[in-house]
Structure formats: C-alpha cells, structure tokens
Amino acid sequence: MRTELYKSAGADDKKPLVLVVDDEETVLETLALQLGRENRVLTATDGEQALQVLAEHGPAAAVVSDMRMPGMNGIELLRRVQMEYPDTTRVLHTGYGDMATAVAAINSGGVYRYLPKPAETDALRAAIRESVAKHNQAMAERDLLDRTLRTGVQALFGVLELSNPPAYQRAGRISTLVGELCGVLQLAGLWEIEVAAMASQLGAITVPASTLAKVERGLPLSADEQASVDAMPRIALRLLGDIPMMQDVLAIVSGLSGGPAGPEGRSALVEDGIAVLRTAIAFEALRFRGCTDVNAITAIEERDDHHPHVVAALRRLKGVRAVEDTVRSVRVRELEVGMRLIEDVVATNGLVLIGKDTVLTELMLDRLTNFARAVELVEEVLAAVPYRAGVKPTAYAGHR
Fold this sequence. Notes:
The chain is α/β, with parallel strands linked by helices. The protein has 15 helices and 11 strands.
C-alpha cells in the first residue's frame, strides 16, 4: 500500500486537502489528475489506510471513496469519517450497481452525495468544489460560534475579576485543572466543558469574599451565607441563559448543583463535563485547605458521589498511584465508565479504535457503540477496574 500527495506545478498548501480512496491504482491516478489542479490530493488504497492518512495529515475538506474495497467498504469508511471528522464532507464514488446502497447512505446522513463511477471530469470537479464549500462553511460557522461564545463568557468572567479577585483566581485554577483533566481523558477541545468551568464560578459575583473564604476553608456557614452559596449556579444560569448554543454548558452548570436532567436525560458530554468539573472543584477546595495531592485525592475517593474515571485521571495527572486496581477480561459491550484499558480496543481488521491506558468516559463509550455499528470489534479486552474505598476488589478473571 502507498500514500501519495499529488500537487500540480506551483501548487501551494492553501489549497483544500482532498482524500481519494480506491483499491485500483489506475482509478486513484485518474482522480488525482482530475482534482489536482484545484486541490491537494492524498490517496489511499483501502479504508484502514485512509484513516491512517487522515490521522497523519489532519482532517480533509472532503473524502471521496469507492464502495467495494477489501476489508472496510466505502460506507463503513465514510461512517467512520463522519464520527471522527464530522466537518469533513463525504462523497461516495461507485458504480451504478451500488446506487441503491449509495442513496440509502445519503438518506442516513453518512454521505453528502453520490458520484457515478467513472465520473466525468467537469462533474467531479464541480462536486468536489461544492463539497469543499460545504466544509468551509461548517468550519467558518464553528469558528464564529467558538469565538462569539468564548468572548461573551470571557466578558462576564472579566466582571468577576473586577468584583471579586480571589474568586477569579480560584476560578482560573479550576479552569486550568479542568483543561488538564480533559487532556488526560481525551476530552480536550470540547469547548462546552471549558466554558462551563468558567461559567460555574460566575455566581461568585454575588457572594461576599468573606463567605467564599469560609467555604474554601471548610468552615460552617450561617443560613444567609449558605443561601448565597447555593444560589451561585442559578446566577450563572440566569447570566448565560439567553446566549445561543449554550444548552450543554447550562446543563453542566445545572448538574453541578444537583439540578434535574431533562426528559431525555443528559448527553454523554454533559455527564463527563459534570464529573470533571465536580472533581476539579473538590480538589481545588481541598488543596486550598492545605491538603497534599495524595490526601486530597484520597478524600475525594471516600465520597459516595465521586467519579472514579475522573479520579483515575487526576491520579495520573498528579503522579499519585492508585491504592489498588483489579484487572479483568471483559467483552467490549461490558466496558464501563472509569475502567482503564490495559490493551487496545481493535476492529477485526486490525485497526486500533481506542488505545491502551485510556480511561473510559461516557463519551468514549458512546464512540465505541458507534464504532460497533460500522465495524466488527475484537472481543474480549483487558481492563483495570479502579479501586473504590470500602469495596473489595473482585478476582482477576483471566484472559482469552
């Protein structure tokens, strides 16, 4: 197998990146020549290699894939691309005999459009221009949303800095820890969690500094002081409630204060956001009171409502070894939040889906469920079950 980057003379890196996938070398060469004038073209000869190319070179503006290939077929590949690179436009390039399958893929949302094989040069170029334009629009909207939301929340955060500097500094420490935990848990880049970390502290605007100091030191509060602290999440929800596209952020902040989930429950992103932020806030409070990293983590683990997978990530981040882990062999569908993979989760074609040492989150399990719909997974996998205070570990169950 080989991967090549085709560039016409004088081409520059500002041209959109397009990946074409086909198991016939002559078809790849033809497509590369047809598209090379307007795009930087990468080629791959099967689905597994295509995913490796995307991992190495970054998201493409468009992926053009044949249907019938050895191993992973075109539908499976484009569904994987949809899951891992949602802003990449997906095009199925296949013969008329596969038209019914192609139409079904378009209707399911996994494919943007279908091109009959072989496609005429003008039709192919026009289709890819449309696909690139769709990708660019999605990226522009995402960038605008990201900048608008971050700017709005940062402006509110600036009010906290002016009105209550100690609370602002505490919020900054919590936000930093949340970002580090998201990195360990492979949740980095999810702006909803990062914004929720800042938003969760906005209610401190209304709380006297003396009351916040008592909270951080674990001192008892008067009824009025406790009421002002309990109102913090509601203040944040009121401040952010009219900002568009903030539903997940608001759900995370609401969940921190024990607010009920909606009629459809909470998404995996919201559950992970609540778990990470709750852990970070608890750790910051304990460290402020003079606890060492070891004692702070141990104290968090003693709580009935702690989140083992986030605590495991916190241990890794702070270099604190767990007291005890139980390693056992489980089927992929039996994996649970908080387990740490001892070995890779792989598809039957050998493709690594989730690497070893990953601590599983709700979002990761959702991702595995999606993978299982597209490719067959290898069963079973070794996983470490984190130690939980007061719970006797089960015996090692062996391995296949």
